[in-house]
């Protein structure tokens, strides 16, 4: 059950800013056979068969002169096919050739997140995010840090993500969640109320507001939050779970529980 919830949080974190960064310019172009396999893989990927596409990217990578680009592309495809363990292997092959490649580092950290290797993911993404300098990268770093129990680090990461993409409600909501984890409940509530005032706000944003209010011992205010199109029974269940999380004393365990509840 924990792995299912962890993957939900990871996937939520990955939604925030879409794809990874563009790869570095390669010196060697693809061979005719590699180009054919890549085009075929892309066509199959567009049809939704991500597993077959990944196998074609793997064949292309084996004969490629551009090992960094090829194995990074393969890792991305394996992530899309739901195989983070193999993606880790592919991204490491790319990094064996170019240890500071931002896209490969971001891919490795993302795969480690999906594989529930949260401490390794935090370590990798701490290096990747400043290289990539995208909202997506800092959001993934913040997700890893939350799951590692580092609320302050997560707050800093989500703050960086917001500075890059200030209009993203998920980024703002994640920042509020990190503030709550750090014990800055007033700041968290202020951030999350701002998010829920947007006409683009969704149920998960209102849930984070309820969670922050509950953590701050404001149970009546949490219960008074009106969540559009959210069944009252589910709301009561969520609030009960939030009160349980509030009783966890150990900071890292509490931070992980908050992150998992926010993703459930």
Describe the protein's architecture and organization.
- With 264 residues, this protein is an all-alpha fold.
- It has helices at residues 2-15, 32-46, 50-62, 67-80, 84-97, 102-114, 118-132, 135-147, 151-164, 169-181, 185-196, 203-215, 219-224, 232-246, 251-263.
- The chain contains 15 helices and no strands.
- It is elongated and about 65 Å long.
- The N and C termini lie close together (11 Å).
- The model is unreliable at 1-27 (pLDDT under 50).
Summed up:
The protein has 264 residues and is an all-alpha fold. It has helices spanning 2-15, 32-46, 50-62, 67-80, 84-97, 102-114, 118-132, 135-147, 151-164, 169-181, 185-196, 203-215, 219-224, 232-246, 251-263.
What is the average of the pLDDT values? Answer: 87
Low-confidence stretches: 1-27
> What string gives the helices and strands in order?
HHHHHHHHHHHHHHH
Number of strands: 0
Helix content: over 70%
Distance between the termini: 11 Å
Strand content: under 5%
Radius of gyration (CA) equals 20 Å
Query: What does the main sheet amount to?
Result: none
Q: Please, how many helices?
A: 15
SS-based class: mainly alpha
Give the overall silhouette: elongated
């Amino acid at each position: 059950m924990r792995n299912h919830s962890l993957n939900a949080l990871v996937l939520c974190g990955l939604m925030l800013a879409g794809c990874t960064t563009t790869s570095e310019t390669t010196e060697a172009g693809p061979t005719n056979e590699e180009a054919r396999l890549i085009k075929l893989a892309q066509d199959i990927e567009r049809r939704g068969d991500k597993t077959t596409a990944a196998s074609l990217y793997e064949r292309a990578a084996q004969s490629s002169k551009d090992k960094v680009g090829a194995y990074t592309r393969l890792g991305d495809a394996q992530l899309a096919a739901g195989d983070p363990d193999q993606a880790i292997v592919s991204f490491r092959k790319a990094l064996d050739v170019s240890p500071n490649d931002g896209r490969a580092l971001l891919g490795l950290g993302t795969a480690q997140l999906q594989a529930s290797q949260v401490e390794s993911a935090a370590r990798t993404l701490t290096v990747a995010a400043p290289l990539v300098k995208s909202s997506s990268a800092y959001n993934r770093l913040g997700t890893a840090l939350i799951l590692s129990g580092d609320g302050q680090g997560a707050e800093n990461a989500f703050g960086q993500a917001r500075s890059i993409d200030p209009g993203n409600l998920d980024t703002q909501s994640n920042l509020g969640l990190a503030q709550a984890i750090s014990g800055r409940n007033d700041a968290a509530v202020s951030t999350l109320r701002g998010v829920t005032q947007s006409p683009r706000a969704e149920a998960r944003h209102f849930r984070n507001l309820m969670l922050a209010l509950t953590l701050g011992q404001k149970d009546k205010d949490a219960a008074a939050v009106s969540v559009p199109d959210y069944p009252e029974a589910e709301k009561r269940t969520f609030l009960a779970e939030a009160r349980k999380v509030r009783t966890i004393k150990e900071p890292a365990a509490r931070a992980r529980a908050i992150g998992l509840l926010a993703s459930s």
